[in-house]
Q: What sequence folds into this?
C-alpha cells in the first residue's frame, strides 16, 4: 500500500497536470495565443529606458546551468556594471574598474526565471510596436511583454516601474563561455562586501533588471529601431556607419569618402548587395558646427546639455549626447571613444561594389528603411544622386 506521503505527491502531480491542461484548454477554446517559452540558452542585446536614463544591456540566459547575466552600460559612461545571477538566489553585482573595484552580494528568495515564466499571463491582444505586429501579455501586474507575431521573438518589455526594454538582437543558442561567469575574488571578501554600497541604486531607478525579472523589489537600484556604429577619421578622410535594424540579422555598411563617394553594401553571402552614391561634398569637417545657432540649455537623457540647432552637447564633458535631424531621425549617442581608430582593412568596400553590372542591378538598400534620408546623406545635409 502506498504511503501517505506518496499519495500526497501523486495528488499534487495530478492537480498540477490538470491546471496546466486547463490553461491550454482555455487558450484553445478562446483562440488566444500562448507566449513562446524562452529558449534554454540565448543572448539578447537590449536598449533600456527609464525616464530618460538610457542604457545598453547584454543579457545572457543559460537555464541548463542555472544562471543569468546582465551586463549594463549607462549612456556615455565608461563604467560597466555586471549583474550575475544564479538559480540558488544569489546575485553578484560588481564592477571591474581597476581603480575602484566594487561588489555587492544579494540573496533573493527565488532563482532565475524559468523558460515558461510567462505561462498564465493575461493576453491583451495585438499591438504594433515599431515595425513589428506583436501579441501582448501582462504578467501579474509587473510586466507587459510584447512578442513578434511572425517569429515569436520578444520585441519589447515594459515593467510596472516604467522601465522599458527594446530587444535589438536575439540569438537563440548563444552561450557565454564559462570563465566569464566567475565573479571576481573581492566579491567573496567579507570586508569588501561590507564596505561596498549598492552600485545600481543611482543607475537603475525602480529596481535592477534582475530583481524586476524575478518579480520582486530588492530596493531602489536600472530607442529607436536602429543600432548604429560610427567611425570618423579626419586624418585619412573617411566616415563609416554600420547599421543593424531591430531584430534583423542583416547588417548594412555605409562607407563614405571625402571625394563624395559612398559605398552602401551588405555582406550577406546569399545575396550580397551594393550601391555607389556620389555627393557634391565630402564628409563633415571636424569644425562643421562653427556658426550654429545657440538655443540655450536643456536636459536630455539625464544630461544637462548646451543645445544648438544641429546638435546637443553635454555641458560638462562636451561630448555629443543627441542629434535630431530635420526629417525626425533621432540619434542617441551611447558611447563616444575619442581617438579610437578602425583598422585599415575594414575600410575596404567589397569587390562587387566595383562591378558595373552589379551596381545597375542593385536598388537602394537604405532608402526605404530610413525615411527622409539615411545617416550619411543627412550628415552631409544634401540629397544624394545615384550612380547609374
A:
Amino acid at each position: 500500500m502506498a504511503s501517505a506521503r506518496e499519495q500526497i505527491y501523486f495528488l499534487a502531480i495530478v492537480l498540477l497536470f490538470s491546471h496546466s491542461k486547463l490553461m491550454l484548454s482555455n487558450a484553445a477554446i478562446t483562440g488566444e495565443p500562448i507566449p513562446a517559452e524562452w529558449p534554454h540558452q540565448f543572448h539578447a542585446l537590449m536598449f533600456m529606458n527609464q525616464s530618460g536614463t538610457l542604457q545598453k544591456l547584454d543579457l545572457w540566459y543559460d537555464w541548463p546551468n542555472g544562471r543569468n547575466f546582465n551586463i549594463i552600460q549607462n549612456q556615455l559612461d565608461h563604467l560597466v556594471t555586471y549583474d550575475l545571477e544564479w538559480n540558488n538566489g544569489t546575485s553578484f553585482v560588481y564592477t571591474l574598474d581597476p581603480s575602484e573595484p566594487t561588489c555587492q552580494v544579494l540573496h533573493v528568495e527565488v532563482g532565475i526565471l524559468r523558460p515558461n515564466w510567462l505561462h498564465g499571463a493575461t493576453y491583451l491582444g495585438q499591438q504594433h510596436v515599431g515595425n513589428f505586429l506583436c501579441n501582448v501579455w501582462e504578467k501579474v501586474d509587473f510586466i507587459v511583454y510584447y512578442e513578434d507575431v511572425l517569429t515569436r521573438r520578444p520585441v519589447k518589455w515594459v515593467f510596472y516601474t516604467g522601465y522599458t526594454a527594446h530587444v535589438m538582437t536575439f540569438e537563440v543558442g548563444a552561450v557565454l563561455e564559462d570563465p566569464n561567469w566567475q565573479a571576481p575574488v573581492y566579491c567573496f571578501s567579507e570586508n569588501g562586501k561590507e564596505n561596498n554600497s549598492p552600485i545600481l541604486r543611482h543607475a537603475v531607478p525602480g529596481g535592477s533588471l534582475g530583481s524586476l525579472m524575478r518579480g520582486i523589489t530588492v530596493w531602489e537600484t536600472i530607442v529607436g529601431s536602429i543600432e548604429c556604429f560610427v567611425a570618423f577619421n579626419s586624418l585619412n578622410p573617411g566616415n563609416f556607419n554600420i547599421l543593424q535594424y531591430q531584430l534583423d540579422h542583416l547588417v548594412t555598411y555605409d562607407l563614405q569618402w571625402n571625394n563624395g563617394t559612398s559605398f552602401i553594401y551588405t555582406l550577406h553571402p546569399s545575396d550580397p548587395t551594393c550601391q555607389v552614391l556620389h555627393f557634391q561634398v565630402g564628409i563633415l569637417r571636424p569644425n562643421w558646427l562653427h556658426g550654429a545657432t545657440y538655443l540655450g540649455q536643456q536636459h536630455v537623457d539625464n544630461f544637462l546639455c548646451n543645445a544648438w540647432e544641429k546638435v546637443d552637447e553635454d555641458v560638462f564633458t562636451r561630448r555629443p549626447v543627441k542629434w535630431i535631424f530635420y526629417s525626425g531621425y533621432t540619434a542617441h549617442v551611447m558611447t563616444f571613444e575619442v581617438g579610437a581608430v578602425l583598422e585599415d582593412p575594414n575600410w575596404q568596400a567589397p569587390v562587387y561594389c566595383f562591378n558595373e553590372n552589379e551596381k545597375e542591378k542593385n536598388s537602394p538598400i537604405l532608402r526605404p528603411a530610413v525615411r527622409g534620408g539615411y545617416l550619411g546623406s543627412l550628415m552631409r545635409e544634401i540629397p544624394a544622386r545615384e550612380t547609374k
User: Anything to note?
Assistant: The chain has a mean pLDDT of 75. Helices lie at 4-30, 190-195, 209-213, 356-361, 375-380. Residues 69 and 180 are 10 Å apart (CA to CA). Residues 41-213 form a domain with the outer membrane lipoprotein receptor (LolB), chain A fold (CATH 2.50.20.30).
